[in-house]
């Protein structure tokens, strides 16, 4: 049904309007009527809830959505009404909330120029849902044109006769709104400026230069606490001579800002380290890596691998999750089920054997196979061998007189000179495998 979904949408788009001095609403009212391919309204016999996805584009066809949201909409005889802006973000697109692609956006931020609305109604099946065509252009309601006039006042439309004395105060001006081009020469003097009314937001970047300041005009009492940040200071401007002894304390230094490169050799001694400040947690990772590098395999008496280790059970893991183990040590030598995955060794029920590597102690190198699909073979770490019993032979015993046993003694013990009887073949003895005395452990690998 989804592939043949058709719809008739009867929409009233209420533009972002407002009364005088009121905030512009942040939602968009939208009504529609949806029917299936046969023309039957959805929810014809009783109301149904469907997921409806609303996407806004800058083009009438094609293109990438500027904004997307999804809502659970109740359809009654095909009709519905929603407030756009109340929905949930759609994965992979910009939108009002998670799981939308960040940074999140609002409807107001895209309402500029030509905007087209695309609607997709989930028909309740697993098949892909098509977007209803054609897309509808968002247009302005009649009185919303007045909002457009208020939004963009033509240059020069306001003159001094229209503005009451003291009507424009500092809180009516956005930071940087009054530029040099708006002011006549010498129009602003100290009498026109209220004490303390010029702050950082009123000044353009780099607007106040040394030439604008009298010698020694800026003193410490003119600078608010915390207003001078690192970006305001030239490299190397503050030297040790500018810093009074004892003025920089631990609270002035942000955590993590002093690195090894900032410390002179031998400058930190045991007397500079408070007792108990270095914990086991600070040392564990470094010590573990030094003593047991990534890829180390050891016997372990527990059933669950400890932190920093994985059981050697042949399990498949993501390369992204264990990049150090994959790229720096094992790669796919123990197998790989698909792209982006790799296997750890499967040492369950297996003895370990050192790689021959030219020593000549493993005569069956060429018959070594991969532990898992995609793994290493031959004389390489990760390859495996099945069990085997070394080739040998048994000597046939002699007869009681010291001579060799002849054919007759092997089949007939009645001859007078044959004191030894022999039945060709031997019975089966032993267990299910050839093995030394052993004990079970789990093998684990360091990642």
Description:
- By secondary structure, the protein is mainly beta.
- It has a domain of 147 residues: Immunoglobulin-like (Sandwich).
- The strands form 5 sheets. It has a 5-stranded antiparallel β-sheet with strand order 5-3-2-6-7, with no helix packed on it. A 3-stranded antiparallel β-sheet has the order 8-14-9, with no helix packed on it. A two-stranded antiparallel ribbon has the order 1-4.
What key phrases describe this protein's structure?
447 residues; 4 helices; 14 strands; single chain; flat; 5-stranded antiparallel β-sheet; 3-stranded antiparallel β-sheet; Immunoglobulin-like; mainly beta
In short:
The protein has 447 residues and is mainly beta.
Strand and helix layout:
Blueprint: E1 28-33, E2 48-57, E3 67-75, E4 79-84, E5 88-89, E6 116-121, E7 132-137, H1 144-151, H2 280-291, E8 297-300, E9 309-311, E10 316-318, H3 323-330, E11 341-343, E12 369-370, E13 383-384, H4 407-411, E14 442-446
Antiparallel strand pairs: 1-4, 2-3, 2-6, 3-5, 6-7, 8-14, 9-14, 10-11, 12-13
Helix fraction, binned, reads under 10%
Oligomeric assembly = single chain
- The helix/strand order is EEEEEEEHHEEEHEEEHE
Radius of gyration: 42 Å
CATH topology-level fold name of the domain at 2-148: Immunoglobulin-like
Task: State the separation between the terminal residues, measured CA to CA.
Answer: 50 Å
Number of helices: 4
Low-confidence stretches: 1-22
Strand order of the largest sheet: 5-3-2-6-7
CATH classification class of the domain at 2-148? Mainly Beta
Number of strands: 14
3D shape:
flat
The major β-sheet equals: 5 strands, antiparallel
Strand fraction = 5-15%
Average predicted local confidence, pLDDT: 82
- The chain-level structural class is mainly beta
The CATH architecture designation of the domain at 2-148 is: Sandwich
